[in-house]
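sanity check this:
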Amino acid sequence: MMAVGIYFFEFPNGFSTGGVSGIAIILSRVIDGLSPTKIATILNFLLILVGLVILGRKFAFKTAFTTGLLSLFLNLFENFLSHDIPFTNQKLLELFIDMILISLGAALIFNEEASSGGTDIIALIIKKFFKVKIGKALLMVDGFVILGAFLLLGIEIGFFSLFALVIRALVVDSAIESLKGTKFFIIITNEHMKIIDFITHDLERGATLLNNCEGAYEKCSKKAIISVVEKKQAVFLKHKIKELDPNAFTIIGTSSDIIGNGFSSL
């Protein structure tokens, strides 16, 4: 997805939307004899070495793998599907297609705790030390690339690139939250044992039982269950609660930050 967006939409239009591909476009204008694809390959290799030192071997291996695939596809496209002019004369349309492909591809890779290389590595280092969302970290890092686009590629391309950078930051964060999203349940019920049995045995998830929860309105004592399940499991749990206790009071929320056994780690 990223290779298609970069090679067929970003390179022909000259969009410098941040990242190594953006740097490669800028440098290709000032360095004769090197295509954006070759410059991107060299820069990615150097940044993987930085990631190895700071983010660890596991991250570096995953990133080297994804970066290798990205570089492979870019070089295959360059050699067998050469394309150096835009498909249309609608730059804004091609920018949107470019950003959707690149952003969704990046989100899928970030979700696996890797990166596609390039300035994504720098963004992940910022995320690690300053605890900011990856989209904001990308915005900070790639902002310098956009500045270069304004200075070397002109005002029009600069504004297009700035617009694309904002879209990418928003889409990446939204896509990651959607991929990682889980549902948490707070269930106040008299059929707590049956519901807990369903959660632990059928869904294979954990549950916490709170005793002696007194309702402020009815002044009666019930028990409450707290549990976190995957999105696809939430549908089954909702139906099961309704079947076992139609009068259960259930609060359901969405979260992308659940830390603990079976979910994310610090």
Observations:
- The longest strand covers residues 221-230.
- Residues 192 and 223 are 7 Å apart (CA to CA).
